[in-house]
Write a structure and sequence with these properties.
Helices cover 32% and strands 43% of the residues. By secondary structure, the protein is an alpha+beta fold. A hairpin with an 8-residue loop joins β2 and β3.
């Protein structure tokens, strides 16, 4: 299953990338993220692997492994994400629409090895796209409402 999501963020691309590229900000726009743990490689570089643990609204824990496959910021950042029965890629592209607006395009692909998830992907594929769009909207809201003071706190949280 493949799909694309797009959102416009009313900030310069440099600012969007600064906020997007800082792992300390993940919990600020992915509220279901419980932990982000380095597994191997240099964080943020191609080949680096990390473990992400999420707890959804129903209290179910999901653990996935992220592997960075492309790091060509400020233009592009891509990775693969695997968990039991699911493999997916996300290819993020950032385009300056104007001096103070950035377009974020995400090309997403899912493959399932779990028969129930395969069926779910066929029956309600919109659910996956809706979740991706929700994360993108949460990032947009976080980024556009980030003050310089908040950015300084983010740097100190590291």
């Amino acid at each position: 299953m493949k799909y694309n999501c797009t959102i416009d963020i009313h900030l310069p691309r440099e600012r969007v990338i600064t906020l997007f590229d800082d792992p300390a900000n993940l919990k600020r726009w992915q509220p279901t993220l419980r932990s982000f743990e380095k597994l191997d490689g240099v964080p943020g570089t191609v080949g680096a692997r990390s473990k992400l643990t999420y707890k959804n609204e129903r209290g179910r824990e999901m653990v996935m492994t992220e592997t960075i496959t492309v790091r060509a910021l400020p233009d592009r950042f891509a990775g693969t994400y695997t968990m039991d029965g699911v493999w997916n890629t996300v290819d993020n592209r950032f385009t300056a629409v104007s001096t103070d607006q950035t377009r974020w395009d995400a090309e997403v692909e899912f493959k399932f090895t779990n028969p129930m998830l395969t069926l779910l992907g066929w029956v309600i594929p919109g659910m996956f796209k809706k979740q991706t769009q929700k994360f993108m909207k949460q990032f947009k809201d976080f980024a556009e409402n980030q003050t310089d003071e908040g950015l300084e706190r983010t740097r100190m949280d590291r």
